[in-house]
Design brief:
mainly alpha; Four Helix Bundle (Hemerythrin (Met), subunit A); 6 helices; globular
């Protein structure tokens, strides 16, 4: 019988993989724009529908979800970013900073986090209260994947040659 899946295994490596694959998609987007002869930053303000957030915000929210996810599970404060990125280079730097931050967590940091109380304030739903397991499985992971998927879809909608393997990335 195998060991139970830990909160660390279900969070930090998953966050890191999603962010790595998001960076890959962004790199393909930037390269595609250059090959097509238009300014790559045009993609950063692209959206699927007028009332949806643009690509740059999808990346900002995905990175926030990952860093806040690990921090909340560990019961520590997360670094804050100003959300001022206007270039692919700045988004890559943000992805790297969050990935580096996530790598500061280990199994011990998230030990017992499945029952840790997590409360967060949202603009649309007010305060949400979870235990750690419910937060990870019912909020953090779905939110991360929503924004990574939406970023992927925005790029694909703009002609970037992305497929499922780009989203999934290499086997872990």
């Amino acid at each position: 019988m195998s060991a139970a899946l830990s909160m660390y295994e279900a969070s930090v490596p998953v966050f890191l993989r999603a962010l790595r694959n998001l960076r890959h998609a962004l790199e393909k987007g930037e390269a595609h724009a250059q090959a097509q002869g238009y300014e790559p930053t045009v993609l950063l303000q692209s959206r699927l529908y007028p009332d949806m957030l643009p690509l740059v915000r999808q990346v900002q929210i995905a990175t926030d979800t990952a860093k806040f996810g690990a921090a909340r599970l560990a019961g520590v404060e997360s670094p804050r970013f100003e959300d001022v990125e206007t270039s692919f280079a700045e988004l890559y730097a943000r992805l790297q900073a969050v990935s580096d931050y996530l790598r500061t967590f280990d199994e011990a940091a998230l030990q017992g986090s499945e029952s840790r109380a997590v409360t967060l304030s949202t603009r649309t739903r007010g305060d949400l209260a979870f235990d750690g397991r419910g937060y990870l499985l019912g909020f953090a992971l779905p939110n991360l994947f929503f924004h990574v998927t939406t970023a992927h879809a925005i790029l694909r909608h703009n002609g970037v040659p992305l497929g499922k393997q780009d989203y999934l990335g290499p086997a872990a």
